[in-house]
Amino acid sequence: MVLKIINAHDAKPGTNIMIEGSVYTVKKVDISKTGKHGASKCRIELEDIVSGQKKIVAVPGHERFDVPMIDKRKGQVLSVGDRASVMDIESFETLDMDVPEELKAEIDTNSSVEYWDIEGRKIIKRKI
Question: Which domain holds residue 63?
Answer without folding.
Answer: 2-68
